[in-house]
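Could you please review the protein record set out just below?
***
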Amino acid sequence: MSLECAGESVTHSKTSARRMRLHRARRQKALRCVTVELREREIDALVAKKLLLCGSRGDNAAIRKALYSYLDGSLGRSL
């Protein structure tokens, strides 16, 4: 076994452990992690509702925050 292989397994186990920690933290908060695909017109709607700045259309973090705001306003904020 080469050092590279050993390094890969250590890196892999670190990333696996990190994923598990994040999973447990989300579960404790009753959260789920999902991937959502948005159409351009849905992003346009977030801009129209002033939840997203027009200049932030390409910023995934800003889109995520705008979508959270939309869901909180539509579904209500849960505790």
In short: The first helix runs from residue 3 to 28. DSSP finds three helices and no strands in the chain.
